[in-house]
Specification:
It is a single chain. The protein is of the alpha/beta class. It has eight helices and ten strands. A seven-stranded mixed beta sheet has the order 3-2-1-4-5-10-6, with helices on both faces. It has a three-stranded antiparallel beta sheet with strand order 7-9-8, with no helix packed on it. Strand 1, helix 2 and strand 2 form a beta-alpha-beta unit. It is globular and about 55 Å long.
Length: 288
């Protein structure tokens, strides 16, 4: 699924498989969206700074998921700006819209669209942003080309992807525990796609090939130290493996929970969890 299929039947099947996968995850993501919004700020801010978001701009947030960083961006662009939240999964858009309504944000509209097949109008947006969405797209080249097309001349697109799994300790822990308990061939477990653009330079190459003037990749490496008085990972576990865990036997669920807790326990030093996070950001400008 890491290839670049064209508009073939196989490509259509892959896109549908991605859509169905994320539709199945939507309930788990919506359940925890408010809880993880504050920790997500560690990654929102570098993306927003790299995108150079300013009041009054028109923004497209691709693969918006449960709403971040789009909700933060909507506040930044203000009443004179506008944000379009885009996702191929209606169930995800519904959760983002609920959260926007709860916040009283009125400068947002919502678009159900595949990032590799956006609506036909071009030169619409000052900025295009996407956080942790491009890695899952079967046709990444087409997706980046579509972003280029819908940008205004002089506009900027900024993408964030995960660095290597080995540099993201929470993913590595959950991946190992899930494969041990639920099996390596479980179709609802996919821990390779999030890292399909983790190789140094892979993201920038995509942008250059689409016609963007790029500025190099930026590594975001964070090392939060978290208290041990609560299982900070519970939301991430549910968002990552909620479906296979729900489908498992009671015994396997209990075994999985013990395995996760034990593996995170190995990350405790000086009375706190020591977590590694690694993301990459790359921006590209559509020259006028």
């Amino acid at each position: 699924m890491n290839g670049e299929p064209g508009d073939s039947e196989a490509g259509d099947q892959q896109r549908e498989a991605v859509r169905e996968d994320w539709a199945g995850r939507a309930l788990h993501w919506d359940r925890h969206a408010d809880m993880v919004a504050e920790p997500a700020e560690r990654l929102n801010q570098p993306l927003i700074e790299a995108a150079d978001i300013q009041p009054g701009q028109t923004i497209l947030d691709i693969a918006t998921g449960s709403g971040e960083p789009g909700l933060t961006v909507a506040k930044l662009v203000g009443a004179n700006g506008h944000l379009t939240m885009s996702d191929m999964v209606p169930e995800m858009i519904a959760g983002a819209e609920r959260r926007a309504n709860d916040l009283g944000l009125t400068n947002i509209d919502y678009m159900i669209a595949d990032m590799a097949d956006l609506p036909p109008d071009a030169n619409l947006y000052d900025r295009v942003i996407s956080r942790f969405g491009l890695m899952f797209c079967p046709n990444k080249k087409k997706a980046v080309s579509e972003a280029f097309r819908v940008l205004k001349p002089g506009g900027r697109a900024t993408w964030m992807v995960w660095g290597p799994k080995s540099n993201n300790s929470s993913f590595a822990v959950i991946d190992g525990a899930a494969k041990k308990i639920f099996g390596t061939d479980n179709p609802k477990l996919e821990f390779d796609l999030p890292f399909s653009l983790s190789e140094n330079g892979a993201l920038e190459t995509l942008l250059r090939d689409a016609g963007f003037e790029t500025e190099g990749e930026q590594d975001i490496k964070l090392h939060p130290k978290l208290p041990t008085d609560r299982p900070f990972w519970s939301a991430m576990v549910d968002m990552a493996v909620g479906r296979p865990r729900d489908a498992a036997t009671e015994g396997d669920r209990a075994a999985f929970d013990r395995e996760v807790e034990a593996r995170f326990g190995d990350l405790i030093k000086d009375g706190r969890y020591h977590i590694d996070m690694h993301a990459r950001i790359c921006s590209g400008v559509k020259l006028a």
